[in-house]
Specification:
This protein has about 210 residues and is mainly beta. The protein is about 10% helix and about 45% strand. It is globular.
Length: about 210
């Protein structure tokens, strides 16, 4: 009885201590201020990541795109429900996905398939201040940093991975990367410092 009880406790401890395999990232600007809405994405150093594109939604509400930043894997579909009372006319001129969805309301916008990796900037022809960013990446391992500039991404196995950090407001679109060796059952931690463009007065007022 006693012996069985000890074995049971040890196996429970084992389950608790074998944590998830992954990477925890902290993102800051050059002054050390936490940077929310940074896209972190991770690719295996060799070989391709599995294709598991999940669909996403970018709504229009209060004359804004919500969320401001979306990250999807190549091949993902995004829907654009208009939850405002006014009509929107959304578009992208970005080479990674050009489209033009003329005036629509409700659910009438065509879903868009994002089949090329890159950055897509969305705008609205009627409301100049509406803007959103879609980062399309060739990996299902991604996250956005939270209000404290933190993101955590789980990985299927230990190994060498390339971790990249992208923010829509970096100088020259800089997307720094780091190669990390991740041990199975371990959370590798790292910090990115991004060179940010100054915030213009108009943005600050929003
Ligand atoms: Cu609009």
């Amino acid at each position: 009885m006693q012996y069985r009880h000890i074995v049971f406790c040890l196996s429970l401890m084992g389950a608790t201590h074998a944590g998830a395999t992954g990477v925890a990232v902290q993102v800051q600007d050059a002054t050390g201020k936490a940077l929310p809405d940074t896209v972190i994405y991770i690719e295996p150093e060799s070989g391709a990541a599995p294709a598991r594109p999940a669909s996403a939604v970018i709504e229009q509400k209060g004359l804004k795109f919500l969320p401001l930043v979306t990250v999807v894997q190549t091949g993902a579909t995004i829907n654009f429900p208009n939850n405002d009372k006014v009509r929107h006319h959304i578009y992208s001129f970005s080479p990674a996905h050009k489209f033009d969805q003329k005036l629509y309301s409700g659910q009438a916008a065509s879903p868009q398939v994002f089949d090329k990796a890159g950055t897509v900037v969305l705008g609205c022809n009627i409301h100049d201040k509406m803007i959103a960013y879609v980062k399309v990446v060739d990996t299902p391992y991604f996250a956005k940093t939270d209000g404290a500039g933190a993101a955590r991404i789980e990985l299927p196995a230990g190994g060498k991975y390339v971790v990249k950090a992208w923010h829509y407001n970096t100088v020259g679109g800089a997307t720094p990367e780091q190669t990390l060796t991740v041990k199975a059952g371990d959370l590798a931690t790292t910090v990115f410092k991004l060179p940010m463009k100054p915030i213009v007065a108009e943005d600050a007022a929003l």
